[in-house]
Amino acid sequence: MDVISHALWGGVIAGRKNKKNFWWAFVIGFLPDALSFGIFTAMIVLGLASGPDWQVGPPPVGSIPQYVYHLYGFTHSLFIFAVIFGLVWLIRKKPFIPLFAWLTHILIDIPTHSLDFFPTPIFWPFLNNVRFSGISWSQPIIFIPDVILLIIAYLLFFIFKRRKKARE
Prior knowledge:
The protein is mainly α. It has one domain. It has helices spanning 2-14, 19-45, 66-75, 78-92, 100-112, 140-167. α1 (2-14) runs parallel beside α6 (140-167), α2 runs antiparallel to α3 (66-75) and α2 crosses α5 (100-112). The radius of gyration is 17 Å and the shape is globular. The model has no long low-confidence stretch (mean pLDDT 90).
């Protein structure tokens, strides 16, 4: 649910302008996790790496290769986001709004990751030890409101979109 939720939030927050922006924001919303965990998962599926034994809950921290932590730091850093956002703006001569899905992903992860498993390294690579202990996504106090808020956000998105079309 975590990755899907990020994609959905990215789409509804940063992709409202048109379908193309929506899909860009949707993809960018899940990229931080896909680029860190997805590579390792693909390697396991392809038999190129061995992964942790399947179990309920997060895998043991020691069973995850170090490069996953480095990729996670890179993709979840406010500094890296700002640099890439700025470079894209400089190249395009205007901001690429769907990139705000990446920022949304990072900001959502800060309070929804605990120190026990992949706390969000928002100041990577400079202040690696500055992390916040939040409440895990899997906890009902986070999971249920997330689903409810996503439903409300998309209902409002489609209602306003329909009203805008009716006025045109």
